[in-house]
Amino acid sequence: MTPTPSIEKKSTAKLQDARTVRKIVNVDDHICLAFAGLTADARVLINKARVHCQSTRLSLDQPASVEGLTKYLAGIQQKFTQSSGVRPFGISTLIVGYATNGEPRLFQTEPSGTYSSWKASAIGRNSKTVREFLEKHYTETSGQDTVKLALKALLETVEPGSKTIELAVMEKDTGLRVLTDEQVDALVKEIEEEKAAAEAARRGGAQARQT
């Protein structure tokens, strides 16, 4: 399954540069991170993640593993729950990337420092609703089908359109690709048309049974 991080996009001020408030970011060529929670805390953890990935390349001459980075960040989060003079990180993260064998991996970390591996997951506000949708509709897909599944899950809780949705695809060969507003709007339109067609077919079938 192609890793497809997607988030509910917060509205920004008219004069604000939207690139400075992204919640899906690269930490290495083959790993990206999405977060829910305090942006200031996330920036600290993202910087630590990038330094860890760079250090791994320099010292071991190989990229950091997705699971190794997850354990490292979860360890930092856990440490801040029991150290004096500090507070826990106010974020949950989804860490997405590819293992050395090309297998896509997804891990989730919590402010407590716990982490776990997932096939698909959601964090933040309304995450329960999104996760329930994924549990019902998840199948092993790739490419555009995976993007549409992530978008359908997000549409369970947000208004449709590029103003409220940010989608990205983590590709094995080319890395993180954030979809443009036009691409998001086109996908939303396609999904809505599919829903309308399915509803029309359902009603037609119901009427045929009645007659």
Task: Give a brief rundown of this model.
With 211 residues, this protein is an alpha+beta fold.
Protein described:
This protein has 211 residues and is an alpha+beta fold. The chain has five helices and eight strands. The chain has helices at residues 39-60, 66-79, 127-137, 144-154, 181-210, and strands spanning 6-8, 24-28, 31-37, 91-98, 104-109, 115-117, 165-171, 175-178. A five-stranded antiparallel beta sheet has the order 2-3-4-5-6, with helices on one face. Strands 1-7-8 form a three-stranded antiparallel beta sheet, with helices on one face. A hairpin with a 5-residue loop joins strand 5 (104-109) and strand 6 (115-117). It is globular, with a radius of gyration of 19 Å. Keywords: Cytoplasm, Proteasome. Its main location: cytoplasm. It is found in: Cytoplasm.
Number of helices: 5
What gyration radius follows from the Cα positions, in whole Å? 19 Å
Mean pLDDT over the residues:
90
Q: State the share of residues found in helices, binned by percent.
A: 40-55%
Task: Identify the strand order in the major beta sheet.
Answer: 2-3-4-5-6
Strand % is 15-25%
How many DSSP-defined strands?
8
Alpha carbon gap, first and last residue? 43 Å
Oligomerization category of the chains in this entry: single chain
